[in-house]
């Protein structure tokens, strides 16, 4: 039930911290990732695979993309993400050393189910990451890792997205451990930081008031763009999807590096652009690049809405709005950065008087191909 919340979506965004905490619960044991659900795949499985393909649709494909960057980096195995409906009908090369991971909140999405069935028929192993106990996709897969976001009722996915990234990161750290590609020290550092994320997500939820004002002020906006790099790129795509879905506003996410290859032509005075800025503390490559992207669009009149680490002085002079998030590991930044974008979408839809739980033309579970 909705309890005191105006909508299920509002309630589910407020449950973002628990979605992460509950998906982690019981899975970090003595400085290691415990995923007994994977025993079904056999002892040497993760040493033998030579490729992982994650199949998913919509928001689940974006969480998959975030997780893929981390898994490939940590476990040194090629990981790609493919929209399930594209994968199914292109005659992909598959074999028993390919792991197909499906990502689905409902576990009933027909496009994803058909991709899983197809992969099995071609000899690949399948692992389901799912939020719904006993749904069709986990039942038919070789193994399952459940996300524990709790039931998601609003059509637009929010807390499940954070739980999906959490589960893939656990899988990534687990796989890296089995494959010997991550030091014990690094693993412990990541797992220690991981456990602080629910509290940090809760801190980020505190931006609601500010975003409420921003959204009221932007209620007539016709188009919003989102830019990110690396794990910030799928966050840009997810932010744009949320806005399209529930606020019916044209929105597009771009990899910031693509700007000069075309999309920068869209920038005209007043165009709002969210930019997901990675922490300046950890890297000397992505951060300056994003800052120069911000300068480029600002010079053409964009209204820059920056989501960045608290105290990021390089961004301040160029941003019209700064939404600050607590410092964390670069790979955990998406779990913080997505939250203001979820809030922005719901606040803007609410400012337009729309039903955020039941957006037009959409169903919670898409059970036809
Ligand atoms: C977006 C949204 C959809 C779903 C997609 C996959 O807010 O809800 O894009 O993410 O239809 O659904 P599941 O995860 O149930 O397979």
UniProtKB/TrEMBL annotation:
Catalytically driven reaction(s): D-fructose 6-phosphate + L-glutamine = D-glucosamine 6-phosphate + L-glutamate
Keywords, alphabetical: Aminotransferase, Cytoplasm, Glutamine amidotransferase, Repeat, Transferase
Superkingdom, taxonomy of origin: Bacteria
GO biological process annotation, one example: amino sugar biosynthetic process
One Gene Ontology cellular component annotation held by this UniProt entry: cytosol
Domain SIS per the UniProt entry, residue ranges: 41-181, 214-359
Subunit note: Homodimer.
Function: Catalyzes the first step in hexosamine metabolism, converting fructose-6P into glucosamine-6P using glutamine as a nitrogen source.
Protein's recorded name: Glutamine--fructose-6-phosphate aminotransferase [isomerizing]
Gene transcribed to yield this protein: glmS
């Amino acid at each position: 039930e909705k309890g005191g919340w105006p909508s299920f979506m509002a309630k589910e965004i407020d449950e973002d911290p628990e979605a992460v905490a509950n998906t982690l619960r019981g899975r970090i044991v003595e400085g290691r990732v415990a995923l007994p659900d994977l025993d079904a795949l056999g002892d040497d499985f993760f040493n033998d695979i030579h490729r992982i393909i994650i199949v998913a649709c919509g928001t689940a494909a974006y969480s998959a993309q975030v997780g893929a960057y981390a898994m490939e980096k940590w476990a040194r195995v090629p990981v790609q993400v493919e929209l399930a409906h594209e994968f199914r009908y292109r005659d992909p090369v598959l074999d028993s050393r390919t792991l197909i991971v499906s990502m689905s909140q409902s576990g009933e999405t027909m496009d994803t189910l058909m991709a899983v069935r197809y992969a099995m028929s071609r000899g690949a192993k399948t692992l389901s990451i799912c939020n719904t106990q006993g749904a069709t996709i986990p039942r038919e897969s070789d193994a399952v890792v459940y996300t524990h976001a709790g039931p998601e009722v609003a059509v637009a996915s929010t807390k499940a997205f954070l739980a999906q990234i959490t589960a893939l990161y656990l899988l990534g750290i687990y796989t890296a451990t089995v494959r010997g590609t991550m030091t014990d020290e690094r693993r412990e550092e990541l797992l220690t930081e991981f456990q602080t994320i629910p509290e940090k997500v809760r801190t980020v939820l505190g931006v609601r008031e500010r975003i409420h004002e921003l959204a009221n002020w932007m209620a007539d906006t016709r188009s919003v763009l989102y830019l990110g790099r690396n794990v910030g790129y799928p966050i840009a795509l997810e932010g744009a999807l949320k806005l399209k879905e529930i606020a019916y506003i044209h929105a597009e996410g771009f990899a910031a590096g693509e700007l000069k290859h075309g999309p920068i032509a869209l920038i005209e005075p007043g165009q709002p652009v969210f930019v997901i800025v990675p922490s300046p503390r950890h890297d000397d490559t992505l951060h300056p690049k994003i800052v120069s992207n911000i300068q480029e669009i600002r010079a053409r009149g964009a209204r820059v809405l920056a989501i960045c680490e608290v105290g990021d002085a390089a961004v301040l002079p160029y941003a019209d709005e700064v939404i600050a998030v607590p410092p964390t590991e670069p790979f955990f930044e998406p779990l913080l950065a997505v939250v203001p974008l979820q809030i922005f979408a719901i606040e803007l839809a609410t400012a337009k008087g729309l039903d955020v739980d039941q957006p037009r033309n959409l169903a919670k579970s898409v059970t036809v191909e």
